[in-house]
Amino acid sequence: MKKCALVVALAFAVASQAAVPQSDKLPASLKPLPAHAQAALLSAKYLSQVHYKPTPLDDAMSAKIFDRYFKSLDGEKLFFLQADIDQFEGVRNKFDDAIKNESVTLPFIIYNAYQQRFAERIAFARELLKGKLDFTVDERYQIDREKAEWPKSDEEARDLWRKRVKNDFLRLKLAGKEDKAIRETLDKRYENYEARVRKIDSEDVFQTFMNAYATSVEPHTNYLGPRSADNFDIAMRLSLEGIGAVLQTRDEYTVIREIVAGSPAANSGKLKVGDRIVGVAQGDSAQFTDVLGWRIDEVVQQIRGPKDSVVRLDVLPGDAGTDGKHVTVAMVRKKINMEEQSAKKSIIEIQDGALKRRVGVISLPTFYLDFDARRRGDKDYKSATRDVSRILAELKRAKVDNVLIDLRNNGGGSLTEAIELTGLFIDKGPVVMQRTGDGRVEVESDMNPGLAWDGPVGVLINRGSASASEIFAAALQDYGRGLIIGEPSFGKGTVQTLVDFDRNSKNEKARFGELKLTIAQFFRINGGTTQLRGVIPDVKLPVTSDVENFGESSYENALPWTQIKPANFAPAGDLKELIPRLQKRHEARIAKDQDFQYLEEDMAEIRKLRKENSVSLNEVVRRKERDTQEARAAQREARQLASKSNQAGDAARAKTLAAAKAKRSRQDDGLQADERNLLAELAAEKAAKDAKDVMLHEAANIVSDVVGMVKTDTRMASRLMPYMPLSKTVGN
Questions:
Q1: Does residue 114 sit in helix, strand or coil?
Q2: Among the ranges given (218-227, 420-429, 502-511, 568-577), the one the predictor scored with the smallest mean pLDDT
């Protein structure tokens, strides 16, 4: 096998050198680390024996890994040629033998070939910037090339990159940039592409390869290298030990993007957004380590550390030049809670004739839980259910009429949290069922009697609502306890567990990483599953997602939909009688809602662009398209201003102006995120967040309609919400 791989690699190198000049910045070849072969073998054991759908590591699996690995490296088919794929074809069925023989050299040979092609393409793109580009020719650039063929020749690849450079150039030109500035911007952009690839290390390559293997078994099984495993843990517990600064890379600098309120970074009084960290030192006296040009995760690892330990930063202020005076900032690390991802509340007031109702909105980005703190008995451990329970108590005191749980783009999290959160809205009983690979079915139940909220509740979902979100929404739907609003959810009906190879091997230092392994399929208490089909909302809002390319049904190896015997449960209510009336009221309302009409216009335009999948590279054509878009936007803004001014005067007018300004700032400026002015980018993000969320407001209208419909009908009230005191149900 090794001899075969070596022959392929040599053949690739010779062919490549004959085809095109080599870049003078070709990255060094990467090699596997000693731990990688063992980690691959351990993963193969679990994937072929313990997985919910155990799949043998054989020639058939090797072929799948081969295709998925090339797709992971070059999914848009911008770098490799068809001839490159053909040259590696001889090892298509060799990955299984390699892993079993504890060799993972082959994926590194392929990656090093990718690096070489990458350097060649970028060198060509930068060379094009030195010449003249013709924008009078009628030709088009294909935007999404995932389903395209590999370029058949180097000439075809060069033509593809010529069009890509022309498109990048034309976007900046249409945004009003001068040619000299455009060439400088794009040359720097392409140079940064090279810099990012040079920072890729052996751990990254191995993780990419192992994920090609894991996701070939099933879409939600993943391999996490030591760094990724640590970040996954932080994302689940929403806390870390550090200084409380959000960082990003800009050019070769590590830049402060955000400072967490109350954190050591904020309390120091010496750090501000835009400052550049150029050195890090541990303790009070250690020398600084220069971190200029480092990967962002490596800088973060230097800054994080044990609680109550000292870290010192060498900082170049954001408003100073490259030769400006540095500042040393010493801080004591503390536990930092990531509040941005925690549950949050807001109140929307809905006017219904002469009546005004208050809808309490709880936005939940993820089902988080600090497993370790809970296991240790920490009374203040972080959890989604605890935070939502606290917020519900606050909303009760605020005398809201109903509650709306916003789970849009909540991709899931802890299964335990999904069950316990459901328990806040039902008395007690089964919530979800799990079926293991050997066919055993376990019923997971809420065992705590009583409710944190006994009033009307709605759940807002979209295509990005997955896993734990679907468990919660399905349970409330099956109990008749809550109204589900939005679009069909993702369709992920599987359960994963983390296998810590280092803990199992008793390694003191992380070496092998972790495997996120699918071990069960979950089922609704009505016997169905959310797998593939998702949760279908009771009241449907316009679909905004690309359902063809996003969601469980977009995976070719997703598990099928199935059903089992229902759990033994008693529905708390029956909302079926209300749903047609609510849908009718919703459709009548949005037919007159200007914001919704604009949203549907925008979605129609997006669908049209997706279908076309290409843009003109003729400047006259593109300017005409842009002028048409800008004219439409100006007319829309004028109508909005007139409407809001008539409705509520200066306050509404000011808010509309701010929203319009935010949208204009988000129009295509041809720049990438790290090329924009940081403070202006953050201001635009804030304005976009503050702009009206038409889906959320309409969902609030719908849950408010529930109260309005039953306020004079005690028979319906008792059927729909048996938990609710009658006085609460029929009140205003």
A1: helix
A2: 502-511
Average pLDDT over residues 427-449: 95
- Looking up tokens 């043998």, which residue turns up? 56
- Which tens digit of pLDDT belongs to each residue from 80-126? 999 999 999 999 999 999 999 999 999 999 999 999 999 999 999 99
Cα–Cα nearest to 229, from 503, 29, 479, 494: 503
Tokens of 731: 């009140």
Name the pTM for this structure.
0.89
403 CB-contact burial (10 Å; exposed 0-12 / middle 13-18 / buried 19+): buried
Q: Which of 62, 414, 467, 489 is the catalytic position?
A: 467
Is 467 catalytic? The answer is: yes
Q: How far apart are CA 499 and CA 517, in angstroms?
A: 7
Three-state SS at 434 = strand
Residue 308 DSSP SS3: coil
Give the span between the Cα atoms of 710 and 727, in whole angstroms: 12
Tokens of 523: 């089922």
CA dist 190 and 130 (Å) reads 13
> Which residues share a beta bridge with 575?
none
Distance from C-alpha of 40 to C-alpha of 60, rounded to nearest angstrom: 17
Beta strands in 252-337 (DSSP E): 253-259, 276-282, 289-290, 310-316, 327-332, 334-337
3-state secondary structure of 247: strand
Beta-strand pair 355-363/344-352: antiparallel
d(CA 620, CA 600): 28
> Which among 197, 118, 129, 125 is positioned nearest to 161, based on CA atoms?
125
Distance CA 621, CA 135 (A): 10
Check 492, 516, 644, 711 and give the catalytic one.
492
Known active-site residue 387: no
User: Would you state the torsion angle of the CA atoms of residues 119, 125, 130, 133, taken in this order, to the nearest 10 degrees?
Assistant: 170
- The active-site residue, picked from 74, 446, 454, 478, is 478
- Residue 43 is among the residues annotated as catalytic for this protein: no
Q: Are 243 and 263 in contact (CB under 8 A)?
A: yes
Q: 3-state DSSP call for residue 511?
A: coil
